[in-house]
Amino acid sequence: MDLRSSPLLTDLYQLTMLDGYFEAAMEETAVFEFFVRKLPDSRNFLMAAGLEQLIEFLENLQFTKEELQWLADSGRFRSDFVDYLAGLRFTGDVDAMLEGTLFFADEPILQVVAPLPQAQLIESRLINILHLQTMLVSKAARCMLAAPEGSLLVDFGMRRAHGADAALYAARASYLAGFAGTATVYAGPAFGIPLYGTMAHSFIQAHARETDAFETFARAQPDNVILLIDTYDTEAAAEKVVQLAPRLQADGIAIKGVRLDSGDLAEHARKVRKILDAGGLDQTVIFASGDIDEHKLADFENQSAPISGFGIGTRLDTSSDAPYLNCAYKLTEYAGQARRKRSEGKEMLPGRKQVFRHYDNGIMSSDTIAREGEEPGGEALLQPVMRGGKRVGRRPTLAESREHAARQLATLPAPLRGLGPASYPVHVSNALKELTEAVDRFVTDQARQ
């Protein structure tokens, strides 16, 4: 089985519900939407990501013979239902915010219009795909905003990501947000993301002399000489780099940079900068890593630390301060009738919707969630991406989505760019409020019958 494309990568209740829909012949058109109920306390905004992987999944949705046989052998489902699943494909429509678009609580990021069984079956995997990259790209975007101007950010977090997919998609999401690249090699052939890497402390330790380790690495990788200098004594290692440089320069090898990975990075960077400059290595940059996040990046900016680039690892790839989003994929219409969930603390808006963004001198000023067909002015954020189960138009490149994300961040109001709490106005149109009241009256009347 191909895990990423298998429809069996789902919750059991999706299949048991489909069995019920099949029994009752419920195949009318349903509308579902994906949204985030509440932003994490540490987030002033979120950024959409994962749409490309979702479209690939939907376009290829199909049970294999082996999967159908497994379902039949499980004893849970009747043979006629398994036969029905054999012919199931996604034939619906999808409207979505493009990858890199900023959004806020309760705004539909994606809307699915399809026969009820199709729209239901995809729920678990859809959330799984969109949740991860949206969570990670939003963390990466905060790092981009907090980093010292002109600094280079690289994803360093594969080893502590929660599995292979998380590592790969962290590389993609961080690049989408504006990172220069990643240390995760597979992201190169998979997505064309630039790769960055230096060396580990074990390379230094494996050599009898630190200088020998530096020289061996430099001659093995003459175009990528970035030396890790904090294995033993950071400042002493910087002196060794200065002493080694002329011997390498004689063979046309330049030391591009040194990396710091422990201790007071800002203080070490100041001392190392002085040593490098005094030794004629004023063009050799300082790169830092080690539990760095947006808060540390802001501290480096405030301290004017002489660091040119940063490897952002664990705290990015696990989104350590906000490791999940309170997101949902819910039914908002079935068979032409608007529906809404009214569970305590989980109320939602009914019907088909559009989100409109308003600007003031090119800066985001407010959003309006409106009923489909309304025209409250502003930019419509939900765009057609699939019709009849097929992609609309050509697939955007990751570079194009990255440019869109950069334009989005450039429109962000100043209070939302900081790390402190800030709010953004999101309005609900009067027509949508009226629809909500009408749905509630209908539900109440039905309950009394």
Automatic annotation (TrEMBL):
Q: Where is the Nicotinate/nicotinamide phosphoribosyltransferase domain?
A: 153-334
Domain Nicotinate phosphoribosyltransferase C-terminal: residue ranges: 379-435
**Looking at the Swiss-Prot or TrEMBL record, what is one Pfam family this protein matches?**
NAPRTase_C
The lineage's top-level taxon is Bacteria
Please report the stretch or stretches of sequence annotated as the Nicotinate phosphoribosyltransferase N-terminal domain. Answer: 8-130
GO MF annotations for this entry? nicotinamide phosphoribosyltransferase activity; nicotinate phosphoribosyltransferase activity
GO biological process annotations for this chain's record? NAD+ biosynthetic process via the salvage pathway
Q: Which UniProt key words apply to this protein?
A: Glycosyltransferase, Ligase, Phosphoprotein, Pyridine nucleotide biosynthesis, Transferase
What reaction does this enzyme carry out catalytically? 5-phospho-alpha-D-ribose 1-diphosphate + nicotinate + ATP + H2O = nicotinate beta-D-ribonucleotide + ADP + phosphate + diphosphate
| UniProt PTM comment | Transiently phosphorylated on a His residue during the reaction cycle. Phosphorylation strongly increases the affinity for substrates and increases the rate of nicotinate D-ribonucleotide production. Dephosphorylation regenerates the low-affinity form of the enzyme, leading to product release.
GO CC entries: cytosol
Q: What name has this protein been given in UniProt?
A: Nicotinate phosphoribosyltransferase
Species whose genome carries this gene: Thiohalomonas denitrificans
